[in-house]
């Protein structure tokens, strides 16, 4: 399913994820809050319809989305994969991997996480999977097209990164919790 078919389900999914990501950006990566260089651009890996461009605009940040199946007519998006981030990356980018990690195999995920270390920070938002994940959420995870839903433990420690904050939240349908999600913010550890 490409971005064209990214339909009503994505709209249901979007507000909770956007709110979590926006909160992390506000608290950790902007001029007023960053403990190191603040971000100036969101680099949205696997951007889908590029809705995060609106968040970037609201935060006075620039935006670049990358997706193998990019939406037509969106100027700040280009065709590419997670493995292309290395050549696109700028030092003041905040790299966001939103709903995409479970689409990436270990080699591609570790590659993008390693390349992103030259940036101002990283946010990963994805399925939350651990002992507390309810059965309904596990069933929905198993139905996802992405075949790489990883245990939450995997995201607790990413090589070369310090985790600053993790949010865990439900995504609801008609008020009923459906998917368990998390969003985590990381800062690059100083490189030797
Ligand atoms: C669930 S959608 C999430 C889209 C968007 N980030 C959002 O939250 O609305 C997953 C996206 O990952 C993209 N994708 C799949 N494989 C990818 C890869 N290897 N590198 C980058 N993006 C990929 C798909 O094209 C799709 O747009």
Note down, in words, how this protein is organized.
- It is a single chain.
- This protein is α/β, with parallel strands linked by helices and about 190 residues long.
- The chain has a single domain (about 5-190), classed as 3-Layer(aba) Sandwich (Rossmann fold).
- The chain has 6 helices and 7 strands; from the N terminus they run αβαββαβαβααββ.
- The chain has a 7-stranded mixed sheet with strand order 3-2-1-4-5-7-6, sandwiched between helices.
- α4 (about 105-115) links the parallel β4 (about 95-100) and β5 (about 120-125).
- The longest helix has 21 residues, at about 10-30.
- The radius of gyration is 16 Å and the shape is globular.
- It starts with 7 loop residues before the first helix and ends with a strand.
- The model is unreliable at about 1-5 (pLDDT under 50).
- Bound molecules: S-adenosylmethionine.
- S-adenosylmethionine (SAM) binds near residues 99 and 100.
Question: What ions, cofactors and ligands are bound?
Answer: S-adenosylmethionine
The main sheet orders its strands as 3-2-1-4-5-7-6
Helix and strand element order:
HEHEEHEHEHHEE
Terminal-residue CA separation = 42 Å
Tally the helices.
Answer: 6
The total number of structural domains is 1
Q: Helicity range of the residues?
A: 25-40%
Percent strand: 25-35%
User: What kind of sheet is the major sheet?
Assistant: 7 strands, mixed
- Category from helices, strands and their pairing: alpha/beta
Low-confidence stretches: 1-5
What is the alpha-carbon Rg in Å?
16 Å
CATH architecture: 3-Layer(aba) Sandwich
């Amino acid at each position: 399913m490409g971005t064209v078919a990214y339909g009503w389900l994505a709209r249901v999914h979007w507000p909770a994820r956007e709110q979590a990501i926006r909160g992390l950006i506000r608290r950790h990566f902007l001029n007023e809050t960053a403990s190191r260089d603040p971000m100036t651009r969101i680099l949205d890996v696997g951007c889908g319809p590029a809705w995060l461009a609106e968040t970037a605009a609201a935060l006075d940040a620039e935006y670049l989305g990358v997706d193998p199946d990019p939406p037509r007519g969106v100027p700040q998006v280009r065709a590419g994969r997670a493995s292309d981030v290395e050549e696109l990356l700028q030092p003041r980018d905040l790299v966001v991997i939103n709903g995409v990690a479970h689409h990436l195999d270990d080699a591609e995920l570790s590659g993008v996480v390693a390349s992103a270390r030259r940036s101002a920070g990283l946010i990963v938002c994805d399925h939350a999977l651990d002992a507390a994940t309810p059965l309904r959420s596990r069933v929905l995870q198993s139905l996802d097209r992405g075949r790489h839903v990883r245990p939450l433990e995997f995201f607790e420690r990413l090589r070369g990164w310090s985790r600053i904050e993790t949010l865990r939240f439900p995504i609801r349908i008609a008020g009923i919790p459906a998917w368990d999600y998390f969003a985590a913010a990381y800062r690059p550890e100083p490189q030797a």
